[in-house]
Amino acid sequence: MWLLTSMNSLMLCKLRASTEGLPAVLTVIEFLTAMNSLMFKKA
Fold first, then answer.
1. What is the pLDDT of residue 29?
2. pTM over 0.90
């Protein structure tokens, strides 16, 4: 379940980054932040 959620988060980050024209680095940072929050919720 959390894997599906993380994939959705990654897609949203990619979509938002491409829409706003942000660099890919920011997308990676946002994805890592989302992953950390998911792991924190599980723990």
1. 83
2. no
